[in-house]
Every structure is written in structure tokens, then in C-alpha cells.
Specification:
Layout (H helix, E strand, L loop, with lengths): L1 H27 L4 E9 L5 E9 L4 H10 L1 H12 L8 E6 L2 H13 L1
Parallel strand pairs: 2-3
Antiparallel strand pairs: 1-2
């Protein structure tokens, strides 16, 4: 039962964060694509690890650092969207998901 709730909360947070980033991507950088690939919520729903994939941005680490610095504002926006569904909004920790870059690198190696 616990895993079902965690999965539902993870999917809900992922969906809402994706919409927030879709609206904010124009302010961050032009031609940038920010994708929330996964969200892993702790069992007590206090923290959430948000895995983000970035395309069209040269300095990915700097943007992740900026997102972590502004996580309170992002959390507030998330709280405004989820105030009727969740009692407590988890604190967010943004992590760069470079799995697609790794896949592309392996694909390039295989083509050689």
C-alpha cells in the first residue's frame, strides 16, 4: 500500500514540475528543453529527488545549481498547484540526469 501512494505522489510531482518548467523554460534560456525524467519521493514524503534532463543548454551544471538555489520558489509554486492534493509538499533536490547523453555517446561509439 505504501509503494502505491509513493508512486502516485511521485508521478503527481513529476507532472506538475514538468508543467512549471515548461512555462519557465522561456525565461531560463531560449531553445532550451527541460525534462523531468523521474521523481523519487522519500517514504515519509519529506524530500523528493528530481532527476532533470537538459537539452539546448551549454552549462548544465550551472543550471542545476541555480535550480537548487531557487528550490524554495519552485517548491512554493508546486505547493500552490498541489495544495488540494497533498498536505505537505516535499523539499526538492534537483539532480542532473545524464542517461540520455550516455546513451548518445554509446550510440556514437557503436557507429564508429
Amino acid at each position: 500500500m505504501d509503494n502505491i501512494r509513493l508512486n502516485k505522489v511521485s508521478r503527481l510531482v513529476q507532472k506538475e514540475l514538468a508543467e512549471i518548467f515548461q512555462l519557465q523554460a522561456k525565461k531560463i534560456a531560449k531553445n532550451a528543453l527541460i525534462t523531468v525524467t523521474a521523481v523519487k519521493v522519500a517514504k515519509d514524503l519529506s524530500t523528493a529527488r528530481v532527476y532533470v534532463s537538459l537539452f539546448g543548454i551549454a552549462e548544465k551544471a550551472a543550471l542545476i545549481h541555480t535550480m537548487n538555489d531557487n528550490q524554495k520558489d519552485i517548491r512554493r509554486e508546486l505547493g500552490n498547484r498541489l495544495k488540494n492534493q497533498l498536505r505537505a509538499i516535499p523539499s526538492l533536490d534537483f539532480i542532473l540526469d545524464d542517461s540520455l547523453d550516455y546513451i548518445e555517446h554509446i550510440d556514437d561509439l557503436l557507429k564508429q
